[in-house]
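Worked example

This section walks through a single chain of length 289. The input is the sequence exactly as stored; nothing has been trimmed or padded.
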Amino acid sequence: MSYEFHHGSELLTLCSRYKISIGEVMLRREMEDTTRTRKEIFAEMKLNLDVMRTSIRTGLDPTVPTRGLMAGNESVKLARYAQNSELGGRLCGIVAAGMAVAEVNASMGQIVAAPTAGASGILPAIVVCCGEEQHMDDEALCMALFAAGAVGAIVAENASIAGASGGCQAETGTGAAMAAAALAQMKGADPEISLTAAAITLKNCMGLVCDPVGGLVECPCIKRNAIGVTNAVLSCDLAMAGIPSLIPFDEVVEAMKSVGDAMSSDLKETARGGVAATKTGKALTRNIL
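Given that input, the structure is written out below as C-alpha cells.
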C-alpha cells in the first residue's frame, strides 16, 4: 500500500480507492515518506495554522506597524472599508486578511510560506477566515492545509512555485490554487471538485509575471495576494456550482510550466521588467538603496 502521487490523476485515484479526502491522502503520504506518526505530523501542521492566525491578527492590528520599505498597514484600511465594498464585507474582509499576512512578511514578521513568502497571505486568509465563519475545528482546518499541500506538491514537481523560474503565476498562482482546493474540501466537495477549483484558479492567472519593484516582496506582491484571494474564492464557487474546467488540472499545470519556461528572464523576479522597470518603479528603487 502506497500513497505516493506525482500528478492530480494519481491523487484522485488514491482518493477514490481508499474513499478518503485529498487532505487525508497527503497526510498519509507524509507519514509514509517521513516515518513520523500521524500525531507528530498533525502537530506540526497545527503549529503552521497557529502562525497563520497570528500573522493575520498582527497584520490587521492598527496599533502594530507592519511596514516594509515601500508599503504597509494598508490591509487595515481595507478592513475598515469592507462594509462599503462592492465585493461585500465578507469577501473584502478575507482579502484584507490576505494582505495583512503579506505585510507582516514585508516587515520581517513570522509567516508560513504558502507555498512561498511572496504568496504567504492567500491560503491563511481563506482557511482561517472561512474556517471561522463555518465554525470549523482545528482538525478540519489542518486537513484543509494538507489538501492545499497536495496541490502545491504537484505544481512544484511538474511546474514551479518560484517566481524566479515561473513568474508570479508560480507563486501567487499556486498559492491561490492551493487555497481554492482547500476551500472546496472545507465545503465538503468531492476531490474532483477541489482539483477543478485549482485548475480554474491557475488558468485565471496564467502568464502572470514576477516584477517586484526594487526586488522586494512588496510592490506589486502584496496586492497580488489580495487578487489571489478573490481568484481562489471565485474559482471554488465556479467549481462548486458544477462549472467544469475544460482543461484538466494536470494539463493546466503542464501549460503553466511551458508558459513559465517561455517567459523572459526580465519577467521572472529580476526586477528588470514589468512595473519594476517603469519610471516610478525605478525611482522607488533608488529611494530604498
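What to look for: The chain has a mean pLDDT of 97.
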